[in-house]
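tool_call: predict_structure(chain=1)
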Amino acid sequence: MLAYIGLFGSLVLLVYLTMRGVNLLISAPLTALIAALTNGLAFFPQTANDNQANFLTSYMDGFTGFVGSWYLMFMAGAIFGKVMEDTGAADSVSKWIVEKIGVKYATYAVVLAAAVLTYGGVSVFIVAFSVYPMAISLFKQANLPRRFIPAALGLGSVTFTMTSAGSPEIQNWIPIPYLGTTPYAGWQVSIVVALFMAIGGALWLNWMIKRAVKKGEVFIERSTDPVVDETRKLPSPILSLVPLVVVLLISFIFHDSLGTSALIVALTSGCIMAYLVSYKYAKSVSATLAAGAMGAVVAIANTAAVVGFGGVVKATPSFVATVDVMTNIPGNPLIGGAVAIAVIAGLTGSASGGQTIAMPLLAPHYIDMGVNTEALHRTIAIASGSLDSLPHGGYVVTTINSVCNEKHKDAYLPFGALTVIIPIIGTIVAIVLFSLGM
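tool_result:
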């Protein structure tokens, strides 16, 4: 019993500390240590028995593994965002959007930009860096509360695009080798669910922002915000879109051959293209590159701290037992699969992590039962993008704290509404439609 209390208690404590603004580099290893001690894990590898997991190795393997896999992509994405800001491209695009569709649609423009990049293959971690400069400019011109920017980025990145049929994001690809499906599995239902999440989420976000504005909330500038010089000449909005298009095309073209490494090529190409089309508008190339690199270090450290927590959790006996229970839920296999994936993703703070752990166990079990593998693929993909967005999730922390510089207590409520509740409802819709034979 103590082991389970420690497992779930450490997660609750991590969420609480995150919401209170405690630095993740402190709270993540601290709560991971609680989970380890209550589950009988040794602290050091030297004090552990042969083949026994220990706190230090489990945490650092998760931490360093994430940094090793994602650092260059984080850096390329952060620098790309800074280059778009420095060349004036982000301001140019945002002003053009405001002029063409009006400030009242500024929120939808941010969601759309994030969605296009995500469905184009850019990692959800990187999309936030890429779109944020335009988002901050749009929200400022529209005088909308900036605490809703993370929600807009999240809606466009980790809901209807990340888990839809055809998406190049890894959350849509992990089930393929286990189920023998394709990235387009269950595409008919996927279209319906994606439309629901996109339209429903956008309307809900707009409603929340309108309520906040009626209460007197406005855009509040910060000293760290880009200084907008109204007299500054900006590049053409059409040319300013070219770097985004380059990122989208290159990541799409080379995704199959280079995998996630295509993102490094795409984002680097986007930086080069931004300077090619807007170099004369740039302020300081060296300062921009340095600022982007430092931003990437902070962002990846915060995210890796949470991944380290997940590494310890996965090594505990109570987690193994929990996974066994979750993967053997009786009844409708689609419901069982969805619940198992969502819970495990919530515990590890990662949609892809939840799938990676559960799929080797779920797939053979449900295939033997004769479950429609395409329906299971799509249901699992959508469900994985729900509880992974609890306050301690890696993407959540990166987007709210590191990219947008907001506090959880201000930004998480709308963020969680769109990235947790909307995908949960979307999962239910998918299960109902599949059960009806669609």
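agent: The chain is about 75% helix and 0% strand. Proceeding to next step.
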